Automatic annotation (TrEMBL):
<dbReference type="InterPro" id="IPR005119">
    <property type="entry name" value="LysR_subst-bd"/>
</dbReference>
<protein>
    <submittedName>
        <fullName>DNA-binding transcriptional regulator, LysR family</fullName>
    </submittedName>
</protein>
<dbReference type="InterPro" id="IPR000847">
    <property type="entry name" value="LysR_HTH_N"/>
</dbReference>
<dbReference type="Pfam" id="PF03466">
    <property type="entry name" value="LysR_substrate"/>
</dbReference>
<comment type="similarity">
    <text>Belongs to the LysR transcriptional regulatory family.</text>
</comment>
<feature type="domain" description="HTH lysR-type">
    <location>
        <begin position="1"/>
        <end position="59"/>
    </location>
</feature>
<dbReference type="GO" id="GO:0010628">
    <property type="term" value="P:positive regulation of gene expression"/>
</dbReference>
<dbReference type="InterPro" id="IPR036388">
    <property type="entry name" value="WH-like_DNA-bd_sf"/>
</dbReference>
<keyword id="KW-0804">Transcription</keyword>
<dbReference type="GO" id="GO:0043565">
    <property type="term" value="F:sequence-specific DNA binding"/>
</dbReference>
<keyword id="KW-0805">Transcription regulation</keyword>
<dbReference type="GO" id="GO:0003700">
    <property type="term" value="F:DNA-binding transcription factor activity"/>
</dbReference>
<keyword id="KW-0238">DNA-binding</keyword>
<dbReference type="InterPro" id="IPR036390">
    <property type="entry name" value="WH_DNA-bd_sf"/>
</dbReference>
<dbReference type="Pfam" id="PF00126">
    <property type="entry name" value="HTH_1"/>
</dbReference>
Length: 297
């Protein structure tokens, strides 16, 4: 059987890049770490590191192995944490994975409201892009996931899906700030802060602009809506974003207006296949729906 201590030593060496760094993190001697790594390599019959004098370099096999080690050690930590909570009578736990557009806007408020109602609740909250959200939920590392619309039908169960209209954002002194609503033709020839083509919003806006004779001039692109908002505030151009980012944009001193278009920002809320949601997750969903309902109009 593999030693958990050896796996932890391997993980720390991979994280730190050196035996000395791993030894410092684990508060043991460097020879102890080296011995654990050698024992692990012998047990696996797999070369994990190449050695050059006092330096080590991870092999491609080590990087592949690290993914599995990280996933399983995280699971062990969750088991230890659960046992401690059970002992203290604090087992009510909620684990969330969310795309940044939700993790930086509406979800913190939803979680805060839930904690006010359930003070003994403990929450683990991770932010990542949609594909890692799907992986975390599918592997059972998180109970519930919030992300962009996903088509991974055989890996997760869809709890709910929805769509919100995009909103126009700009600096407070932008000429278009005088308009109550923004139409597609208002964007013609304007400097624009857009999204990468690999994102849902990037594809939506590319499709929208493809039919324009004089489309906006994309000066900057980003994967994250928060960065798009910040760049728009810095005067790089106007932008179209989800309503949550638009709300934050206004709080930071910018302006937001309704954007008249059939394009929508689509999202999914997911869980592991066959998993039963806890009462805490159900309560989170209800709070999320209440907080977001006004943005659907």
């Amino acid at each position: 059987m593999l030693s958990q201590r050896a796996l932890e030593a391997f993980r720390e060496v991979m994280r730190c890049g050196t035996v000395s760094g791993a030894a410092e993190e684990m508060r043991v001697s460097q020879p102890a770490i080296s011995r654990q790594i050698r024992d692990l390599e012998e047990r696996l019959d797999l070369r994990l590191f190449t050695r050059h004098g006092g330096r080590i370099t991870a092999t491609p096999e080590a990087h592949e192995f690290w993914t599995e080690v990280e996933r399983n050690l995280v699971g062990l930590k969750q088991i230890e944490r659960a046992a401690e909570q059970i002992k203290r009578g604090q087992r009510a736990t909620m684990t969330i994975a969310a795309a940044p557009v939700f993790a930086l806007t509406v979800l913190p408020e939803a979680v805060a409201q839930l904690h006010q109602q359930q003070p003994r609740l403990t929450t683990s909250f991770m932010s990542m892009t949609t594909l890692p959200v799907v992986r975390q939920v599918a592997l059972g590392q998180c109970q519930i996931g919030f992300g962009m619309q996903t088509h991974h039908k055989f890996e997760i169960d869809l709890i709910s899906a929805g769509a919100f209209p995009y909103r126009f954002i700009a600096t407070a002194d932008h000429p278009l700030a005088d308009k109550e609503t923004i139409r597609v033709e208002d964007l013609a020839g304007q400097d624009f802060v857009g999204f990468e083509d690999s994102t849902q919003t990037g594809r939506n806006l590319d499709r929208l602009f493809a039919g324009m004779e004089n489309p906006p001039l994309v000066r900057f692109r980003s994967y994250l809506s928060h960065i798009v908002s910040v760049m728009a505030l810095r005067g790089l151009g106007i932008a179209l974003v989800d309503p949550f980012t638009a709300e934050t944009h206004e709080q930071m001193g910018g302006i937001s207006r309704p954007f008249l278009s059939a394009e929508r920002f689509e999202y999914s809320i997911i869980k592991a296949v066959g998993a039963r949601l806890s009462s805490e997750c159900d309560a989170l969903l209800q709070t999320f729906e209440k907080l977001t309902d006004r943005h659907r109009r």
